[in-house]
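seq:
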Amino acid sequence: MELDKNQTPFRCAIYTRKSTEEGLEQEYNTLDAQRDAGEAYVKSQRHEGWSFLPDRYDDGGFTGANMERPALQRLMQDIQDGRVNCVVVYKVDRLSRSLMDFSRIMETFDRHGVAFVSVTQAFNTGSSMGRLVLNVLLSFAQFEREMISERTRDKIAAARRKGKWAGGRPVLGYNVKKTKLQVNQEEASQVREIFQLYLKYRSTLEVARILNDRGWRTKRWVTGKGKVTGGREFDKTHVHKLITSPVYIGKVCYKTEVHEGEHVSIIDPEVYEKAQSILKGNAICCGLENRNKHKALLRGLLRCETCNCVMSHSFTTKGTKVYRYYVCQKAQKRGWDACPAPSIPAGEIEGFVINEIKAIGKNERLIQSTINEIRHQTEDSIKKLAGERSRLLRQLGQDSAELGHVAQHLSPESDRLSQLKSRIESTERRIAKITQEQQSLTDKEIQDQEVHEVFSDFSRLWGNLHPREQCRVIESLIQQVSYDGEAGRLSISYKPAAMSLMSTESQEVLA
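struct:
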């Protein structure tokens, strides 16, 4: 497009850009310098009828790799409205570092008859030679951007391989100070509790529900630009991401590589590995009832005590006959020699567990041992609830004090005020629920007679239950079954509220 020398006035918009915000707070910064150069060039063409628009199109702190820039968007709108005849920049890469984006911009310029001028790179977009020079310059600008990206990636990779935190979203349990991860003790206790909840319930969805009921939220932080982010309700994706993060065992990742980190771990590696085993087991069976078509009673409950890993249910067929068994996962991964008792017939160990449960009602020593174990688990649950309640009361006091202070300085419609009110209400609900759970556990203290009755009912009802109901009862009653094949020993851990759960299940299956 040839410039019309007789056009008066020839309105020029001066566009400036800087990739970072560094130095923009200065009285005279690089954006001012770019604009001064543009104004000087336009003034040199005053005899041609050129004049610059008073509007400033400054993008400070925005990359040239995309078009998501407020001043550029405003400039494009003014071009479409017919307010601009020419766009002036200090260098071509100030307008764009992407050849594709630049082509789109030039199409818009051509469509509206707008010329384009670079102060430091003399060319005329109205000639074919000028367009060639422009495309060559832009190609080098894009090459430079890609080289910067590669150097940045290499720097991050080198930092991660040395165990350093190389940026990214902060994780629950840690604060970032001077590019280093420091343990946040309050959040760290929450992370440990989340892992324990997952080991207990073996479901990310159930853990997310419990966390939201407690009023817990995801990691909340303030970005470099002052934007508050995070602090949302948990969902199963958040829980899955948390329990699979090696950061909690003192490691850092780069792509598929895992390296020892500089920061302190907050989760025991054994607990972490247990969580990964459960996740893998859930992924294999997808957590669906119909995948347990052989009604394996101890699926997800049986562990190899010698290897400290899950024993998964498997089967094989010979003609019309199905042979079921439980296999140590370590033996599956490393070979049959890795475990002294790599497999055991499913029917054999399931029958043994059922007989052990039935035998409790006939053996006073077993009853007393069961009562002691359940009481110990109940006391431990009450202690954990008391600790959480104390923490929430402290948080409630801090939030209430902050609310009183903020209310004096902010309008009632402010986001910060709403967030504080919402968090206080959520905390109060969780405290009330904890109090209710504590009372419920206290009220359901196990009595000797109740144990006799429950296990007597179990022995009487078991043979009349559908296999699916049998699985439900076992899952409600048992927390874990540990099998030591080397010593030939089996131990059963019951859930804290096993007696009341069993009573409820018996009533349901009879109904």
